[in-house]
């Protein structure tokens, strides 16, 4: 019917516009972060505050056979009292389109500063973890994960 043609064209145009909008949103994030991007993110949060190694147990696989679902577990040594506890743990990946992976927030009520999740890694890269303590001290841990297939980058 002659009346159907404009509707199909309008729907097709709307569909193409949605695809173009999605591509415009995704396109700026196709570049990969690097160690400098992680450093810049940490500088935004903490300035030049010193970070010490220790107190963090970062458990990630050395080799991830599938970059789409890489398990990560973080455990920070802390008494988790009102006077001495972990406030936040930030996890970064220096080879993903956006360096920030996840932030876990804690209070003394947590009892233990431990969390786990799965993350998506675009390629072989370093995972950087920073724990922010209630007294303002910062602790860091770093581990490399070799990604063999998958990931956000294909």
CATH superfamily of the largest domain: SoxY domain
Secondary-structure element order, as H and E?
A: HHEEEEEEEEE
Task: Give a quick account of the main beta sheet: strands, pairing sense, barrel closure.
Answer: 6 strands, mixed
- The tally of structural domains comes to 2
Let me know the average pLDDT.
85
Q: Which properties best describe this structure?
A:
154 residues; alpha+beta; Immunoglobulin-like; 2 domains; 6-stranded mixed β-sheet; 3-stranded antiparallel β-sheet; 2 helices; elongated
Question: Can you tell me about this structure?
Answer:
The protein has 154 residues and is of the alpha+beta class. The protein folds into two domains: 1-30; 32-147, SoxY domain (Immunoglobulin-like, Sandwich), CATH 2.60.40.2470. The protein is built from two helices and nine strands. The strands form two sheets. Strands 1, 3, 5, 6, 8 and 9 form a six-stranded mixed beta sheet that branches. Strands 2-4-7 form a three-stranded antiparallel beta sheet, with no helix packed on it. The protein starts with a helix and ends in a 7-residue tail after the last strand.
Short description:
Residues 24-29 have low confidence and may be disordered. The chain has two helices and nine strands.
Fold blueprint:
Blueprint: H1 4-26, H2 35-46, E1 51-53, E2 56-59, E3 63-64, E4 70-76, E5 86-93, E6 100-105, E7 113-119, E8 125-133, E9 138-147
């Amino acid at each position: 019917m002659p009346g159907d043609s404009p509707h199909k064209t309008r729907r097709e145009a709307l569909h193409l516009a949605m695809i173009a909008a999605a591509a415009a949103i995704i396109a700026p994030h196709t570049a990969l972060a690097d160690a400098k991007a992680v450093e810049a993110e940490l500088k935004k949060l903490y300035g030049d505050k010193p970070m010490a190694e220790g107190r963090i147990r970062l458990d990630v696989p050395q080799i991830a056979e599938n970059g789409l679902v890489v398990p990560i577990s973080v455990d920070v040594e802390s008494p988790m009292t009102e006077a001495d506890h972990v406030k936040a743990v930030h996890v970064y990946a220096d080879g993903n389109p956006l360096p920030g992976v996840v932030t876990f927030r804690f209070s003394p009520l947590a009892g233990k500063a431990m969390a786990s999740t799965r993350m998506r890694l675009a390629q072989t890269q370093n995972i950087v973890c920073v724990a922010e303590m209630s007294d303002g001290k910062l602790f860091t841990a770093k581990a490399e994960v070799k990604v063999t297939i998958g990931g956000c980058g294909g």
